[in-house]
Specification:
alpha/beta; 8 helices; globular; about 220 residues; 8-stranded mixed beta sheet; Leucine Aminopeptidase, subunit E, domain 1
Length: about 220
């Protein structure tokens, strides 16, 4: 399998959310898995195969961009920069003769579908609906929300497996949207998915203690 993500694979992956998903994948995937991502190591040559160790397992690793370049402020988003970096080495990746891909980066999903090759894609939704709404440029996200959702739904149609860490009601609602735009793919909730209702802003009446004492 190819694990494609714009994280720094040259060191342990820290963090919650997407980083936790990558760590879980690294723990459970076979060492034959090929990692494609970013690096911060001066020993790594961009575009050249390396061997790195995660969780006492040696993986083949293809660094496609330096982390310093990836996080440098630019007009292009980090996801787009990373996808363009991967695209430069798509022939080299294809030469590995591995077609199974795991990614949680929507621009990678889009880029793979634009290549003339066939892929067996497992896609993890980092955010159901439009993640740009809560990203670094939410104003642009609001403008592009409808466009993004339709394109993402179209791309999901070409994946083998789609799943998301969200509650079943949220996933069901999103699946209804996918059905409305005639997408056959069904997003599956993770067994340990986050109940998004937990983070829903609550009204004052909901947050007040259930006693007869009035708290203004």
């Amino acid at each position: 399998m190819l694990l494609i993500d714009g994280v720094d694979f040259s060191q342990p992956v820290f963090g919650a959310g997407g980083a936790a998903v990558i760590n879980s994948a690294l723990k459970n995937l076979h060492p034959n898995t090929i990692l494609i991502g970013a690096t911060s190591s001066s020993d790594h040559i961009i575009g050249q195969w390396q061997e790195i160790v995660h969780f006492n397992k040696a993986f083949r690793f293809l660094p496609v961009i330096h982390m310093e370049e990836l996080i440098k402020p630019k007009v292009k988003s980090q996801n787009l920069q990373f996808a363009l970096a991967v695209a430069k080495y798509i022939r080299k990746i294809k030469a590995s003769d591995i077609r199974s891909v795991f990614t949680q980066t929507y621009t990678i999903l889009w880029m793979l579908l634009l290549t003339p090759y066939s892929w067996d894609i497992c896609f993890y939704y980092p955010g159901l609906g439009n993640p740009m709404l809560i990203g670094r440029r939410p104003k642009i996200g609001r403008l592009l929300a409808c466009f993004y959702d339709v394109i993402q739904g179209f791309c999901a149609n070409y994946t083998t497996v789609c799943f998301a860490a969200a509650s079943e009601p949220v996933v069901s609602e999103y699946n209804r949207f996918l059905k409305k735009i005639r997408t056959k793919t069904i997003v599956k909730p993770l067994p340990t998915g986050v109940d998004t209702d937990l983070f829903r802003p609550k009204s004052k009446s909901e947050t007040q203690p259930k006693t007869w004492i009035f708290i203004p």
